């Protein structure tokens, strides 16, 4: 157990996931306050998803410790050199996916809160939200 906790506390990817989840949750709460739309089922679903991400990372960290699997072979050498990766385990790989997912959610919440978002990203985010969700309406634009 000490090995797992040590691994979790030293892993930058896991720290970034936790930071992204925290920031996304904060922005989501601020957006709910701004729009006066507190939906408990939506909030519970989001909370369950975030807890599942954390549990998945914890479980995959244990798998990494046991297997020592290395995903570096799937990355181009330029990325390995640029990011100075020495090891990319299963937990780090999924952490990167979760960071990407949370980053999109953060941008969405920033946009819906009215925070400054670069115009090209704002337009793409609006079109994406308009196409796949009912979170924005045509008159909001």
From TrEMBL:
Pfam family, one: Phage_holin_4_1
Keyword presence, ATP-binding: no
Keywords: Membrane, Transmembrane, Transmembrane helix
UniProt-listed InterPro entries: Phage_holin_4_1 (IPR006480)
Membrane topology listed for this record: Multi-pass membrane protein
Compartments it resides in: Membrane
Highest taxon of source: Bacteria
GO cellular component terms listed in the entry, alphabetical order: membrane
Keyword Transmembrane included in the entry's annotation: yes
Protein's name in the database: Holin-like protein
Gene: tcsE
């Amino acid at each position: 157990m000490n090995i797992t906790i040590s691994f979790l506390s030293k892993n930058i990817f896991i720290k970034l996931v936790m930071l992204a989840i925290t920031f996304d949750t904060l922005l989501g709460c601020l957006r709910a306050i701004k729009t006066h739309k507190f939906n408990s089922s939506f909030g519970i679903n989001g909370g369950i998803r975030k807890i599942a991400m954390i549990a998945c990372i914890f479980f995959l960290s244990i798998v990494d410790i046991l297997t020592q699997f290395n995903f570096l072979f799937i990355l181009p050498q330029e990325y390995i050199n640029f990011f100075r990766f020495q090891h990319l385990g299963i937990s780090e790989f999924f952490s990167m996916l979760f960071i990407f997912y949370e980053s999109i959610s953060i941008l969405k919440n920033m946009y819906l809160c009215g925070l400054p978002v670069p115009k090209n990203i704002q337009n793409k985010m609006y079109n994406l939200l308009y196409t796949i969700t009912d979170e924005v309406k045509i008159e909001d634009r």
